[in-house]
Amino acid sequence: MLGLLDELILLPGLVWPTLRMITPTLRTTLEAEATQIAAHPTSRIGAVVVVLVWLGGAVALVWWWFA
Description:
Structural class: mainly alpha
Order of helices and strands: HHH
Largest sheet: none
């Protein structure tokens, strides 16, 4: 419980000053780039690797469970 509470207090307390240090022009540019990247992911290979890792973990768990 304490771990969650410190994150609830510390993270906004650290993000807010960080955002204030970024100039408005740079912030607008970065927000536009982030929106563009979030609109369409670029790495299908990365998605395939993640799915294969999860499937491998599931197979290993089933193997271990029934072996």
